[in-house]
């Protein structure tokens, strides 16, 4: 009984430490105070100011850039990662281990190492830094995570299904589209969501590949804003909205997956 209480207490303490900062930001997004922690009364002015056209043009541009880069990078990395995972799965055991080890290296490496490496690569190739290099960089570090998300689904799949489809007259492309992809689709969706999250959250890789053309993402905008001595108050409602959207999306996906398991 005591052990159970201690375990539950530890769990709730851990959850409190993880989510308390987020809840504090959510609470103070409903006040006009410029400094976090200074409550000046309930107000939704920050939300209205956030969506007022032209009020925070640079913040709006940073948000749009962040979302478009994340969606493009996640889509491309999901396609590349899924195809690569299928290729790795069909290799011999020794080759599969070697390629799997190589795939894990970018994940284990620090973001700053990947950022510097890509920066030197783009400079040596003479590629001007900007929107394109940021997208390429995000695709590069997101793809290994997609591979790790798809591989377990391939291992769970019955390999005889693909061969049966070929025996019944399907072409390899038809078997891939109608047999393999439906089997690995949950892994692809998980990899896509993980890639979107990693892209939105990334700072180290972005700051090394963003160049000096004035392009900004949320992470670089917040960093530059913090260096000025404070954060724009509208970042609080923006963070709240992003958190709620991600939470709702996760709840919907989890409910759909649980319904499929029950069915």
UniProtKB/TrEMBL annotation:
GO terms for cellular component: plasma membrane. It is a multi-pass membrane protein. Pfam families: BPD_transp_1. The chain crosses the membrane at residues 12-30, 67-89, 101-125, 131-151, 179-200, 235-253. The keyword Signal does not apply. One of its GO terms (biological process) is transmembrane transport. CDD domains: TM_PBP2. Keywords: Cell membrane, Membrane, Transmembrane, Transmembrane helix, Transport. Its main location: membrane. Residues 63-253 form the ABC transmembrane type-1 domain. It is found in: Cell membrane. Belongs to the binding-protein-dependent transport system permease family. CysTW subfamily. PANTHER family: PUTRESCINE TRANSPORT SYSTEM PERMEASE PROTEIN POTI (PTHR43848). This is ABC transmembrane type-1 domain-containing protein. It comes from Phocaeicola massiliensis B84634 = Timone 84634 = DSM 17679 = JCM 13223.
